[in-house]
Amino acid sequence: MDLPPYSPGLHKLVTLHVDEISKLTNSSGFVAVTNSILEKYELEKVGVVVHDFENESFTISFCLRGSHICIHTQPQYKQLTLDVYLSNYFQDNSQRVRDVVTDYITYFNAEIIKDFEINR
Predict the structure, then answer these.
(1) Do 101 and 14 contact (CB within 8 A), yes or no?
(2) pLDDT-derived band at 70, boundaries 50, 70, 90
(3) Which of 11, 65, 71, 113 could lock 118 by a disulfide, CB 3.0 to 4.6 Å apart?
(4) Contact indicator for 90, 98 with CB cutoff of 8 Å
(5) Chain-centre distance for alpha carbon 67
(6) Is-contact 62 50, C-beta < 8 A?
(7) Alpha-carbon distance 69 to 17, whole Å?
(8) Which CATH class is domain 11-119?
(9) What does pTM read for this prediction?
């Protein structure tokens, strides 16, 4: 059986500026918006780890089926880093990755500082 060429997926890494500090310190808000995003794009969550730091920043990793979404906030700098990777195992998810990141930019009302795309 001949298989078509396989590209593992798009990995998008962004650093965002966020003026609304409460969004950078509200880990439960991020979990809620991520659960909505997962439902919207029919992405399967297999696990989540949330850690809130003493300075009210947080780091969260959503493990998805063959993929992930991770965030690290730095409220003292009004910034966050976001990492979104969706596997292309069943279909090309490149546009989905971009759309997911756009949804987060909208949620945070953020300005892009750095934006990297890595085709894996």
Answers:
(1) yes
(2) very high
(3) 11
(4) no
(5) 10
(6) no
(7) 18
(8) alpha beta
(9) 0.92
